[in-house]
């Protein structure tokens, strides 16, 4: 074995474990790694800000199930990247963040940009470490891959001392990473079958990560066999075909009231992969803590999540992929006690999501969504960040296939644009559409430059109402007629996009949207459509004035 630098060993390890792309902002603290990447068969995406780079890595992890790789420099680079690490933590996404670090001999002096990363990321990452010796690089990278992907996936943070990266060592690489799988026991599956036979009002809720297209298809077959209503957790709607006759809707913000009541009234909840945290549980109101009123069968790949909040009637320690494969062996009874419930639940979903409310202004988002539903293929990928604008996508779009949604369950603003860039680079032959509010977009607008540099032909829909709309809505509910710190004076987003060399148009009327979208798609370039929305059109159900009037009437 020949001597290689720590930087060379690191890049060699990335290749060994199948890394396809690195999202980064360069820094002098890891020059040796950047130099090693020059000769590697790994694509490098140069981002504009570390938060955007980390969100791109998270998106790659979401859509592939493999760790997204992000590299940033020390100090400010790491603090910027923390936003994406938090997304990966709450969204259970495999990701590895590499941070250039000060030289080992300078520790504890508050050297230039020195940060204790174990302390900084200890509360949000699955594992935080510093590689002190070049000969241990293969060991640490192998462990990082396994920690990021096993159990409940999440982010790993590895600091790279600058002098370690130029230190040499002769060391072998381990075998490539393989997914550590957790399978359900036969006794547990037999128990589940008996409970499904006995249930009169069962419902399944799908969420979390560790899913595959095969698992999604397998669970659909199980749902059909047991006539089981199936809901998807917050921003996990791609886990079940929304037009399947068993689909009951999404358990997220602005839940269909009939779906909420169905969950409360159920006698069996089959929770697969998710945690039923604050947003899907409607602030922990759908299911009692710690003892649910309903029988709860909780399937999760991490044993520590079973019983952490809700005491399950039956706990199944298994990944969604392994569980769904095993569940195909379950047999229904001769006569289902809850027969017909799935059809009624789907009927309620269609009525809820099919209503097209008219809102104030010349641009109707319902019309925009109608055009999208009619004209885009089922494999189109949709991304978004946080804000009221996302309601239009979550409530009115029919997700049909796995791998078509990238959105932060953590509610992070600014996520949609970098997510769209990563999605398009990962799946270049599929349409990628980013939904972003005017406030949300400006959190990471600089990554539009990354899209243009990479020639990633995403289409960004900027839904501009001139304010931080979600906060303004809450202000009017709680402090009517006292708006504070929510007004935005925005740029001409289309002109800004054109300055990057992109295709861009401004849309102010519903009828203009379709032709503008078609021109954007035909351009073959990154594109932005600036949708000017009336500020009164704050939600599909109520205008800003109506929300204010209701608050004043209380």
Give the topology.
Blueprint: E1 4-5, H1 6-16, E2 21-24, H2 31-37, E3 43-46, H3 50-64, E4 68-72, H4 76-90, E5 95-101, H5 117-121, E6 127-130, H6 137-149, E7 155-161, E8 168-169, H7 186-198, E9 202-206, H8 213-226, E10 230-233, E11 247-251, H9 257-265, E12 268-272, E13 295-300, E14 314-317, H10 320-327, H11 341-354, H12 365-375, E15 381-384, H13 390-396, E16 405-406, H14 416-426, E17 432-437, H15 438-441, H16 447-454, E18 459-464, H17 469-478, H18 493-499, E19 503-507, H19 510-523, E20 527-532, H20 544-553
Parallel strand pairs: 2-3, 2-4, 4-5, 5-7, 6-7, 9-10, 9-12, 10-11, 12-13, 13-14, 15-16, 15-17, 17-18, 18-20, 19-20
Antiparallel strand pairs: 1-8
Write a structural description.
With about 550 residues, the chain is of the alpha/beta class. The chain contains 20 helices and 20 strands. It has helices at about 5-15, 30-35, 50-65, 75-90, 115-120, 135-150, 185-200, 215-225, 255-265, 320-325, 340-355, 365-375, 390-395, 415-425, 440, 445-455, 470-480, 495-500, 510-525, 545-554; strands spanning about 5, 20-25, 45, 70, 95-100, 125-130, 155-160, 170, 200-205, 230-235, 245-250, 270, 295-300, 315, 380-385, 405, 430-435, 460-465, 505, 525-530. Strands 3-2-4-5-7-6 form a six-stranded parallel β-sheet, sandwiched between helices. The protein is globular. The chain starts with a strand and ends with a helix. The mean pLDDT is about 95.
């Amino acid at each position: 074995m020949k001597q290689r630098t720590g930087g060379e060993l690191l890049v060699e390890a990335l290749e060994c474990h199948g890394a396809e792309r690195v999202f980064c902002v360069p820094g002098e603290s890891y020059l040796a790694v950047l130099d090693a990447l020059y000769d590697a068969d790994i694509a490098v995406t140069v981002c504009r800000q570390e938060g955007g780079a980390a969100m791109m890595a998270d998106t790659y992890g979401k859509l592939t199930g493999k760790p997204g790789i992000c590299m940033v420099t020390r100090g400010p680079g790491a603090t910027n990247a923390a936003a994406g690490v938090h997304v990966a933590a709450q969204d259970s996404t495999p990701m590895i963040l590499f941070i250039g670090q000060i030289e080992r001999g300078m520790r504890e002096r508050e050297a230039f940009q020195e940060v204790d990363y174990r302390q900084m990321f200890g509360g949000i990452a699955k594992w935080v470490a510093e590689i002190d010796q070049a000969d241990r690089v293969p060991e640490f990278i192998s462990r990082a891959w396994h920690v990021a992907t096993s159990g409940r996936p999440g982010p790993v943070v590895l600091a790279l001392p600058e002098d370690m990266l130029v230190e040499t060592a002769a060391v072998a690489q381990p075998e490539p990473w393989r997914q550590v799988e957790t399978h359900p026991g036969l006794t547990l599956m037999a128990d589940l079958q008996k409970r499904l036979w006995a249930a009169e009002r069962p419902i399944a809720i799908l969420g979390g990560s560790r899913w595959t297209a095969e698992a999604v298809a397998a669970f659909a077959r199980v749902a059909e066999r047991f006539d089981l209503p199936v809901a998807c957790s917050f921003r996990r709607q791609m886990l079940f075909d929304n037009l399947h006759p068993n689909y009951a809707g999404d358990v997220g913000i602005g839940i269909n009231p009939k779906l909420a009541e169905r969950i409360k009234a159920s006698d069996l909840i089959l929770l697969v992969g998710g945690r039923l945290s604050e947003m899907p549980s409607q602030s922990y109101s759908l299911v009692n803590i710690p003892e649910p009123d309903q029988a709860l069968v909780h399937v999760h790949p991490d044993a520590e999540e079973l019983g952490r909040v809700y005491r399950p009637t039956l706990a199944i320690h298994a990944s969604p992929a392994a569980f769904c494969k095993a569940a195909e062996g379950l047999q229904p009874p001769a006569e289902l006690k809850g027969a017909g419930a799935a059809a009624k639940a789907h009927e309620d979903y269609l009525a809820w999501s099919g209503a097209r409310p008219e809102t104030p202004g010349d641009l109707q988002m319902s019309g925009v969504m109608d055009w999208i539903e009619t004209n885009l293929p089922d494999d189109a990928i949709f991304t978004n960040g946080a804000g009221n604008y996302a309601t239009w996508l979550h409530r009115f779009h029919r997700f049909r296939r796995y791998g078509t949604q990238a959105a932060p369950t953590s509610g992070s603003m600014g996520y949609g644009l970098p997510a769209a860039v990563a999605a398009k680079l990962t799946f270049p032959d599929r349409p990628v559409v980013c939904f972003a509010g005017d406030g949300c977009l400006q959190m990471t607008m600089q990554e539009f430059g990354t899209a243009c540099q990479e020639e990633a032909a995403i289409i960004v829909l900027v839904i501009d109402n001139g304010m931080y709309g979600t906060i303004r809505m809450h202000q009017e509910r709680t402090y009517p007629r006292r708006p504070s710190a929510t007004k935005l004076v925005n740029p001409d987003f289309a002109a800004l996009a054109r300055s990057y060399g992109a295709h861009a148009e401004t849309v102010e009327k519903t009828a203009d949207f379709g032709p503008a979208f078609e021109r954007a798609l035909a351009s073959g370039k990154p594109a932005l459509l600036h949708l000017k929305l009336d500020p009164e059109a704050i939600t599909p159900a109520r205008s800003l004035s109506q929300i204010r009037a209701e608050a004043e009437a209380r």
